[in-house]
Amino acid sequence: MIEAIKRFYETHITPESEDQNAAAVQHRLQLASAALLIEMAQADNQRHSMEFQAIHDGIMEVFDLSAEETAELIELADEEAHAATDHFEFTHLINAGFDYAGKTKLVELLWRVCLADAEMDRYEEQLVRKIAELLHIEHSDFIAAKLRVQRDYSTTGHLDDFDDYDESR
Predict the structure, then answer these.
(1) Is the CB of residue 15 less than 8 Å from the CB of residue 21?
(2) How far is CA 71 from CA 25, 36, 56, 60, 144, in A?
(3) What residues make up the domain containing 124?
(4) How far apart are CA 157 and CA 152, in angstroms?
(5) What positions does the domain Co-chaperone DjlA N-terminal occupy (predicted)?
(6) How does DSSP classify residue 160?
(7) Which of 2, 28, 107, 152 is deepest in the core (most CB within 10 A)?
């Protein structure tokens, strides 16, 4: 009888808890990433719809979420971003949960938000740089992510003003 209960627990309860735990970890990573993207959108003390569209599109693309799930995640992340005292709580989770490629993709999303309104405020650039450093992204990958976003935007007709931007800054 005890063996039957143990087998039942192992086959029915433990895998479900592990799945629930994995889902909870994934949700926290999504929330932390979205919160950093929202911080990026507000770095210049303005809330541009183009930046929030970039957040929405980036989250949907990277996390493969529906429009409704993405909107809910952004709403929760907005609350988290307002309650946060610093970026470390988010970057700490991301460092623990993402591999280097995932963290580099997040830096690319930060650049997308930064450049979405075709104006790069110095505070926005500083924030991307700071977050990239907290995520331990190498400078060459930081610049490569920026160039990819600029190239993507320039081929779609956005950000023509940044074609001659000095990358060495």
Answers:
(1) no
(2) 19, 15, 7, 9, 29
(3) 2-162
(4) 9
(5) 30-146
(6) G
(7) 107
